[in-house]
Amino acid sequence: MAKLFKAISVSIVAPRSFAKRAGSPIIRPTMNAAWVMLFVAMLCVLLSSGCSTTPGPRSFPAPAALPPCAALPDPLVMLDGRRVSSPGQWYDQRRPELMALFQHYMYGTLPPKPAQMRARVVAEFDDFAGGKATLRLITLETGSNGAPQINLMLVLPNHRPGRVPVFLGLNFCGNQSLTDDPRVPLARGWLTSLCKGCSNNVVTEAARSAGAADWPGDEWPIADIVERGYGLATFCSCDIDSDRPDVSDGLYQWLAGGDPARNRPADRGTIAAWAWGFQCCVDYLETDPAVDPRHIAALGHSRNGKAALLAAAFDDRIALVVVHQAGCGGSAPSRGKTGEQLHDVNRSFPHWFNAEFKQFNDCPQRLPFDQNCLVALCAPRAVLFSNGQADQWANPAGQFDVLQAAAPVYRLLGVDGLAPQPMPAPGQLAGDHLGYYIRPGGHSMTPADWTMFMDFADRQWGKPAR
Ligand code: GCU
Questions:
Q1: Is 443 an active-site residue?
Q2: In this structure, are residues 335 and 328 in contact, taking their beta carbons and an 8 Å threshold?
Q3: pLDDT tens profile 227-273
Q4: For residues 146 and 28, what is the distance between their CA atoms, to the nearest angstrom?
Q5: What is the Cα–Cα distance from 109 to 105, expressed in whole angstroms?
């Protein structure tokens, strides 16, 4: 029986320390991290005449002053050449350094955690998915005066002996695109007309009757997910920052307080904004009594996978991340020669990354990191890269190399990541904490892909109690 719940609201106040969110060293550097950054800045002044700006803890060499390196950089070698030889050195020095480097040269600074976020459970229905699940609709108010409002849709199996592990996925076209249940509100933000039922960049009621498919070829098999004992939480990128170069709305516009001088595209990246959205949702999920806060998996397909990986790299509350066909700027090497190249992604989607990243268009080899270092930031947590053989644009073979080149950090931290081995045959899940999977077919997210995502989570966490 459907029941409409009295709205319950919970205020989530940012802790004084950001200790649980791994992005904290950038915002509040630890003594060690601050000294390392200062050392790097001083080294930069000594080595490069082009680096004449006032040295500060966040200054790094200009891209042209960085030495080219054809291979994927070793995540265990610091920018000044020192080798990382202990877990303590990884956590205190190299990890904060890499987080600063990724923000400086690629993604832009991750937006700060909301000072106070209000979560309102606006409705709950226990007869969702043919009576097998409960649908909980939550609004996350991330601030006042036009701050993004994230509409989080949480689906929980009705039979749940304890707290449930949850997949937290970013969707392309709005929560209503995942189900034809009319009780799910339509997305309100700007959306591309590639989304079904979207007219003049606005979602209409036709989005529901269009069938439960987010984006061409993307499926979210809700009944299968709850049947296997998992919860699903999902939100739309359009609630945070619309997927277009226009900077007139969204998170950065709000952070700038409407002041165009402070809303500079140079310092911002939409992928980082979406990663921030993941982190706000985790802030809520940690407080939901039905959710197991130790078993939250972030998930995204393609551009959404780029954001999921960045979110997981910077937030150690995300215990597992599924990065499906994310490609360049996500799971594929920026130095890759197959499929989308760094200059392609920067030209087609200038708003995804900061201005500094465009300076590597003609020489990605100068990047002082590659995506293996982003994966390494997740260590020792679980990461799955999954791919389609026909989706060469996402460079599936290069993604396997990225995982292999992250594995030394997993070994340093005492867990098995991915043993040195050839790329697995289609249909086989390879690896341990670093999983890799490729199947026949192209760029899409299918129910069979979800079976593999859940198999991987089962392997890491054990099958959920049902
Ligand atoms: C384009 C883009 C990719 C991206 C993909 C998607 O193909 O070049 O980088 O991953 O869109 O998000 O579907």
A1: yes
A2: no
A3: 999 999 999 999 999 999 988 889 999 999 988 888 887 889 999 99
A4: 26
A5: 10
- Residue 34, both tokens: 């601050």
Residues 6 or more apart whose Cβ sits within 8 Å of residue 186: 174, 176, 203, 204, 205, 207, 208
Q: Read off the tokens for 400.
A: 């396997």
Using CA of residue 334, residue 340, residue 343, residue 349, what is the dihedral sign? negative
Name the residue type at position 312. Answer: A
Which residues line ligand 1 at a C-beta cut-off of 6 Å?
A: 302-303, 327-328, 340, 345, 348, 393
Could you tell me the distance, in angstroms and rounded to a whole number, from the CA of residue 345 to the centre of ligand 1?
8
- Note whether 241 and 252 are within 8 A (CB): yes
**Whole-angstrom distance, CA of residue 464 vs CA of residue 330:** 29
Q: Which atom of ligand 1 is nearest to the CA of 340?
A: 8
Q: What are the structure tokens assigned to 377, written together?
A: 């930031």
Please enumerate in sequence order all residues whose Cβ is within 8 A of that of 144, keeping only pairs 6 or more positions apart, or say none. Answer: none
Summarised one tens digit per residue, pLDDT across range 121-149 is 999 999 999 999 999 999 999 999 899 99
CB 205 within 8 A of CB 184: no
Q: Pick the catalytic residue from 177, 324, 443, 444.
A: 443
**How far apart, in whole angstroms, are the C-alpha atoms of residue 298 and residue 238?**
18
Q: Cα separation of 294 and 456, whole Å?
A: 16
Inter-residue contact 97 to 21 (CB < 8 Å) = no
Do 229 and 160 meet the contact criterion of CB atoms below 8 Å apart? yes
- Alpha carbon separation from 74 to 363, 374, 409 (Å, rounded): 18, 12, 9
Is the peptide bond preceding residue 380 cis, with omega within 30 degrees of 0? yes
> CA triplet 150, 18, 21: central angle to 5 degrees?
65
As a whole number of angstroms, the distance between CA 127 and CA 13 comes to 32
Q: Checking DSSP bridges between strand 320-324 and strand 116-127, what pairing results, if any?
A: unpaired
**348 CA → ligand 1 middle, Å:** 9
Look up the pTM and report it: 0.90
* Residue 254 · residue 268 · CB < 8 Å: no
Catalytic residue, chosen from 302, 331, 334, 386, is: 302
**Do residues 166 and 295 lie in contact, with contact meaning Cβ atoms separated by under 8 Å?**
yes
Q: How far apart, in Å, are the Cα atoms of 268 and each of 328, 357, 388, 415?
A: 18, 11, 31, 35
As given in the structure block, the two tokens for residue 162 are 């304890």
In which element (H, E) is residue 136 found?
Answer: strand 133-141
187-231 pLDDT, tens digit per residue, is: 999 999 889 899 999 999 988 855 567 787 899 999 999 999 999
Nearest residue to 321 via CA among 457, 195, 186: 457
Measured over the CA atoms of residue 356, residue 362, residue 367 and residue 371, the dihedral's sign is positive
